[in-house]
């Protein structure tokens, strides 16, 4: 079997599929997997263990043998818990081969090989009976197949099948039940991730307003879940319009139906406002009594209880199809529709009629189709990108810079994916605006710009003078932003594209941004360090094999590579000053030789150096810059504010240094190399 791994090529701006060799063995998947994060989730582990012990005792009290089915065993953790709790036998199913192999080793190392059988299959392929994978059906069903949306990893069809074929009727299930909660909110910030707000431009001839086309206004968006660390959303960024409401629950000890369905609740707003967003999370009860509860509720729900940090389960943001003005105390019906793998929401006003119950009244108009983007914008712009385009401060910087460089006779070429810059340039007076690659025709139509802005659908290297009506480009602009970019410096594709169109540029061309710079800072993470830190012993079980496996995978190719994380969701403290490490001059072409730098940065504060954060800043024109990372210099305690629309690059150090005393200042030395052939940045740090 061949393995292909997708990678963005920053020199061509496209996605490429690389074939991996025999020795690959899913290193990228393992290195980036959430297994370490789950093993660090103490609250989850403790509660699973309690639930498993209770289930084994209940079965034993009935005088039965405890036969466990653990679907998706991963490291084998939950089966080892069951075996320790006195289970007679465990069938541990794991579909992902490298994990199944690891589970065999871990189970052996912990001395459970005679009690736990690892089966490397998808649960729906497992056979029961003499000569089958399982001797008999199990009477305890243990799983952890949930994602932030609960059902997104296929828990429902897996349970449905297991109840039909793999477990006994009346089996004990750990968890016993899951419950999904919702809260209706108004939030300009979150709404800006789905809707494009009108953009105001002060032009010479008065204010121009760029309006989103009606297709976009009425578009339901995309069905993919928006999962975020809601605990990092300050309460000032949203207004709760309803109490927390139970939307639906699933009893895992009974047959489960995965077929599409809907759930409906009545709610009364506690406040008048604009209903835009449904925030949602779930909890699981590990036992039938509900005494062992593991919850994803955000900070404002149980203000007194300690929050467990975790990244493998967060909270969901659902966007209502349209914004709905609601009044305090009026009756509303909130509907959750779901298919096998995803959930979406709908809000209606309840009409009060005699004779008919609200339920019957509205049964007919339940919207069962999942949201499908009709305007194309939601396919081109992901949620952070919507947020970025709606960021008025950022737009103002671009307008200010464009105003400085544009003249009435400017011939302007814009290279960026799904950018509004060509429209801004046109409003600010450029005679002719040409625009590359991805854009939304409907947007131009809605703003009557079809004959003002020309879209050139060729790759930059294929640009011909005829595309430009034999004119030379006097202003070349870019945000830059490209949908294939994963790490901050991948947007340097702008530089490669600029190099490719060199022959079409006027001798006195202005390039906006004129340059970019790469910045770096050493940080201590509040929590994010956990996802890459070894676990060792988890609830008394030795899982070091897993740690070693992750380390191997990190070293396989990922070594000297950074990973993208949106740091507004992952608080950290700066331990060094931010430092500009490399600059990229867009007024010139990409050089043949590599760009490298070395140096050292002093640690200013007490703390653990978990890694370095890197980001790009774009220098649009003299004195006008935008940052995709740090928004301002950290305060005296080292608290940082990050650009909320961008992912920054995080390079985790292989060993953490803890600087307790600063009498003798510690420094981190770095070597950073931008390979102009590949567009990638390699780095090395020494503590
Ligand atoms: N039980 C472990 C790991 C949970 S992660 C723990 O709690 O720490 C979920 C695992 O289930 C993944 O390894 C995934 O590969 C596996 N998986 C998901 N659905 C499955 C299915 N239907 N059959 C077998 N394995 C499955």
Give the % helix.
10-25%
Helix- and strand-based class?
A: alpha+beta
Please state the second-level CATH architecture of the largest domain: Distorted Sandwich
Number of contiguous helices: 16
Total strands: 36
> Quick one: biggest sheet?
7 strands, antiparallel
pLDDT averaged residue by residue? 91
How many angstroms does the end-to-end distance come to?
41 Å
CATH top level label of the largest domain: Mainly Beta
Radius of gyration based on Cα positions: 28 Å
GO cellular component, one term: nucleus
GO molecular function, one term: protein-arginine omega-N monomethyltransferase activity
Protein name: Protein arginine N-methyltransferase 7
Keywords: Chromatin regulator, Cytoplasm, Differentiation, Methyltransferase, Nucleus, Repeat, S-adenosyl-L-methionine, Transcription, Transcription regulation, Transferase
What is this entry, summarized?
With 687 residues, this protein is α+β, with helices and mostly antiparallel strands. Helices cover 20% and strands 34% of the residues. The structure holds S-adenosyl-L-homocysteine (SAH).
What does this structure look like?
The protein has 687 residues and is of the alpha+beta class. It folds into 5 domains: 30 residues, no CATH class; 143 residues, Rossmann fold, CATH 3.40.50.150; 176 residues, Hnrnp arginine n-methyltransferase1; 122 residues, Rossmann fold; 128 residues, Hnrnp arginine n-methyltransferase1 (Distorted Sandwich), CATH 2.70.160. It is built from 16 helices and 36 strands. Strands 8, 11, 12, 13, 15, 16 and 17 form a 7-stranded antiparallel beta sheet that branches. Strands 25, 28, 29, 30, 32, 33 and 34 form a 7-stranded antiparallel beta sheet that branches. A hairpin with a 2-residue loop joins strand 32 and strand 33. The longest helix is centred in the first third of the chain and has 20 residues. The protein is globular, with a radius of gyration of 28 Å. The model has no long low-confidence stretch (mean pLDDT 91). The structure holds S-adenosyl-L-homocysteine.
């Amino acid at each position: 079997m061949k393995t292909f791994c997708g990678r963005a090529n920053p020199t061509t701006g496209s996605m490429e599929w690389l074939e991996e060799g025999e020795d690959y063995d899913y290193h990228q998947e393992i290195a980036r997997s959430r297994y370490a994060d789950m093993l660090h989730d103490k609250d989850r582990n403790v509660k699973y263990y309690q639930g498993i012990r209770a289930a084994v005792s209940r079965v034993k009290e009935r005088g039965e043998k405890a036969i466990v089915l653990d679907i998706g065993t991963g490291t084998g953790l939950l089966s080892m818990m069951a075996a320790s709790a006195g289970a007679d036998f465990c069938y541990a199913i794991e579909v992902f081969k490298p994990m199944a192999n690891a589970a065999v080793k871990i189970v052996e190392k912990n001395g459970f090989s005679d009690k736990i059988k690892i089966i490397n299959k998808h649960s729906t392929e497992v056979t029961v009976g003499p000569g089958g994978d399982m001797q008999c059906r199990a009477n305890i069903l243990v799983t952890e197949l949930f994602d932030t949306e609960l059902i997104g990893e296929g828990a429902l069809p897996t349970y449905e099948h297991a109840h039909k074929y793999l477990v006994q009727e009346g089996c004990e299930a750990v968890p016993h039940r899951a419950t999904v909660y919702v809260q209706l909110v108004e939030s300009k910030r979150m709404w800006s991730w789905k809707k494009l707000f009108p953009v105001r431009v002060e032009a010479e001839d008065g204010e121009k307003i760029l309006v989103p086309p009606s297709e976009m206004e009425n578009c339901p968006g995309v069905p993919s879940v928006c999962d975020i660390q809601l605990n990092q959303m300050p309460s000032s960024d949203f207004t709760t319009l309803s109490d927390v409401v139970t939307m639906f629950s699933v009893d895992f000890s009974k047959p489960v139906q995965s077929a599409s369905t809907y759930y409906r609740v009545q709610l009364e707003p506690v406040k008048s406002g604009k209903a835009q967003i449904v925030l949602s999370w779930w909890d699981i009860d590990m036992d039938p009594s509900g005494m062992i509860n593991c919850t994803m509720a955000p900070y404002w729900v149980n203000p007194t209880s300690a929050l467990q940090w975790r990244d493998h389960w967060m909270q969901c943001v659902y966007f209502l199809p349209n914004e709905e003005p609601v009044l305090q105390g009026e009756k509303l019906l909130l509907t959750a529709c779901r298919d096998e793998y995803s959930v979406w929401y709908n809000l209606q006003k309840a009409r009060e009629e005699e004779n008919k119950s609200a339920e019957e009244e509205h049964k007919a108009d339940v919207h069962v189709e999942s949201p499908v983007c009709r305007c194309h914008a939601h396919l081109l712009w992901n949620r952070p990108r919507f947020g970025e385009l709606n960021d008025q401060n950022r737009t103002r910087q671009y307008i200010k810079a464009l105003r400085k460089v544009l003249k009435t006779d400017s011939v302007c070429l814009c290279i960026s994916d799904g950018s509004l810059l060509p429209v801004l340039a046109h409003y600010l007076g450029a005679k002719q605006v040409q625009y590359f690659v991805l854009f939304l025709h409907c947007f131009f139509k809605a703003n009557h710009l079809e004959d003002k802005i020309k879209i050139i659908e060729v790759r930059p290297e294929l640009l011909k003078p005829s595309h430009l009506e034999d004119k030379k480009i006097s202003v070349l602009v870019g945000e830059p932003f490209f949908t294939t970019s994963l790490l901050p410096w991948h947007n340097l594709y702008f530089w490669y594209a600029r190099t490719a169109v060199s022959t079409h540029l006027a001798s006195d061309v202005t390039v906006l941004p004129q340059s970019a710079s790469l910045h770096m800072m050493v940080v201590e993470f509040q929590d994010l360090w956990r996802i890459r830190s070894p676990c060792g012993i988890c609830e008394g079980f030795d899982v070091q094999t897993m740690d070693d496996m992750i380390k191997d995978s990190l070293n396989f190719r990922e070594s000297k590579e950074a990973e993208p994380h949106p740091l507004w969701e992952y608080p950290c403290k700066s331990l060094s000053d931010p430092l500009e490490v490399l600059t990229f001059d867009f007024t010139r072409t990409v050089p043949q030789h590599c760009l490298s730098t070395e140096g050292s940065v002093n640690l200013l504060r007490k703390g653990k150096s978990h890694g370095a954060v890197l980001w790009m800043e774009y220098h649009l024109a003299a004195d006008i810059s935008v940052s995709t990372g740090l928004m301002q210099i950290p305060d005296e305690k080292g608290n940082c504010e990050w650009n909320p629309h961008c992912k920054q690059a995080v390079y985790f150090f292989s060993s953490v240094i803890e600087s307790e005393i600063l009498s003798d200042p510690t420094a981190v030395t770095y070597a950073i190399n931008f390979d102009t052939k590949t567009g990638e940045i390699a780095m090395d740090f020494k503590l």
